[in-house]
Amino acid sequence: MRLPCATPTSSVYFSIVQPNAPATPVVVEVPHAGLMLDALSLATLAAPGRSIGRDADLYVDELYAEAPERGASMLVAHVSRYVCDLNRGEQDVDARAADGGRALSAPHGLVWRTTTEDRPALFAPISRQELQRRLNLIYRPYHEALQQLVQEKLAHFGFAILLCAHSMPSYGRAGHSDPGRPRADIVPGSRGGTTTAEVVRTATEEVARSCGWSVEHDEPYRGGFSTAHYGKPNLGVHAIQVEIARRLYMDEQTLAKVPQGFAKTQSFCNQLVERLGTLVLR
Questions:
Q1: How many domains does the chain have?
Q2: Residue pair 206/272 in contact by the 8 Å Cβ criterion
């Protein structure tokens, strides 16, 4: 069954994959798995190449690649978060990262000023012109596509479930709020339960625990821009951010997949998409 609304257009910066099985109300968003930097963005970047990989949600697009076979729509960004962080608000711009910015407390805003290892990410603040280029070319089209995907589900099913798919370092880094602290295997974020119905959070926890994994809600990640912006349960849109500890599926030093762990984690992702797709929310 195909959804009746118009399908957004993919671009070189992101891809949209519609269900190739009976559709469910689920949209899987993967904003941070990409590694691509265009030439103009690369020219401003001081972060070492290793940080591009370490600060990406590597392989998350592959972990959820079978979601369309389970009825979900997918939106996958190809650009590095060092071009622009698609899980931040458009106004979340540090003045030390871009001319005209205001959010002085946001080194990891729309434009990252530092890496998660607290090293400089930029040679100098990017110009207003460059900021607008990234917004017009990448950020705004991406969120227009995400909004349309959510609205398609809402129109067809009467509700939508947005699964914001992420991964996280297994221990907090120097530039994080929890440096050196070990993290749970799975961290669902719903900003204190405000962005989704409790049944969505419960289902996520149950699937994780069935894999033998630890779960910690909202700690250290409560859900970013997409979760907060789109998650409006009173309007029928339920959003949950799911962070997967990278130790479960990859070597965090070499950045290589761990085959057995990767297969188990991919199975978790498939089970989660299937489980959320069976929920009926009104």
A1: 1
A2: no
